[in-house]
């Protein structure tokens, strides 16, 4: 995979040159029309039309070329079907020398008509995963050098709007594509993640945005060193009328009661709340988005249990600044914690799990894996997964190989 990424990067200047060549080649039809006008009615100041002998010579060459083309076409028609395939380089699966491997998008879209799940295979979804993974570090100037954290946030915020009391919201719908949900304060800055995913969707138009966004969250966690996340396809995209009301996601300046109010409506318990909070190992806050500022950890693009270690072992003071209330670490004054983060160490029920995860990354990974997979399926009707469940024995969810695993297996 590393050599593949290198070759892809090396190919980018070639693609740019080809695009430039195509750009300059675009006006050619106009040039042809100008030549025709030149022969019929010369513009003022243009050369005189060719003499009859030159025109006759041109017609002779033209007729000869047409005759040769007709003869070649007739010869091609005389070949058998397999001979034609061999000439054109068309393979058994419809691939050819010009366009490469056969595009499965149309095939999968046709199979999806009238049903959920369709005939997309695990390999098809692995290809989507790989495309996301390959693009995570495409812009070294974005945040800390990876789009991974913002993709986790997109999957989280698209799923965390679920309310079990009304059975509304959740990952089924991808309604953040529309206003007003796209403009909710909690979703500030997620336009970067949605634009990232739009580029991926153009490559794989058969996948729903709902499945794509959650799969992006899986890829980001795994590629940044986190646990394997089981994932099932089957989400359907919704409409603007299904946008959820503002206020269903947690506010960073609140305490433990607020956390329970938000997460209990999703169906989570105290242990799951703490496990999911461990995603703050990734990324940072932005003053121009949430108002808060700074990363939670020293390695914001590595998924570890460092978040819990810092909560337990570092000393935290209120930051004195012109912004919303947040804490800063005493040692370096370069890290931050929100009020909701500190609430995890102040509430006895939450604190026991913080301490447990600080001692054991394995326990954190195991519990996060389960809670995150549950989060990504919130609001999805179980019948949406029925078509999928026939694909593998017992309906076992997909677990995707990371790019590192794929590279090592070669």
From TrEMBL:
InterPro entries: Ccp1-like (IPR044831), Haem_peroxidase (IPR002016), Haem_peroxidase_sf (IPR010255), Peroxidase_I (IPR002207), Peroxidases_AS (IPR019794), Peroxidases_heam-ligand_BS (IPR019793). Pfam families: peroxidase. It comes from the Eukaryota. Residues 100-112 have a biased composition (Basic and acidic residues). GO terms for biological process: cellular response to oxidative stress; hydrogen peroxide catabolic process; response to reactive oxygen species. PROSITE patterns: PEROXIDASE_1, PEROXIDASE_2, PEROXIDASE_4. Residues 207-408 form the Plant heme peroxidase family profile domain. One of its GO terms (molecular function) is heme binding. It is found in: Mitochondrion intermembrane space; Mitochondrion matrix. It catalyses: 2 Fe(II)-[cytochrome c] + H2O2 + 2 H(+) = 2 Fe(III)-[cytochrome c] + 2 H2O. Its EC number is 1.11.1.-. Keywords: Heme, Iron, Membrane, Metal-binding, Mitochondrion, Oxidoreductase, Peroxidase, Transit peptide, Transmembrane, Transmembrane helix. The keyword Thylakoid does not apply. SUPFAM superfamilies: Heme-dependent peroxidases. One of its GO terms (cellular component) is mitochondrial matrix. Residues 30-58, 90-122, 229-251 are annotated as: Disordered. The chain crosses the membrane at residues 60-79. It is an enzyme of class 1 (oxidoreductase). Belongs to the peroxidase family. Cytochrome c peroxidase subfamily. PANTHER family: CYTOCHROME C PEROXIDASE, MITOCHONDRIAL, THYLAKOID LUMENAL 29 KDA PROTEIN, CHLOROPLASTIC-RELATED. Destroys radicals which are normally produced within the cells and which are toxic to biological systems. This is Peroxidase. It comes from Pseudozyma flocculosa.
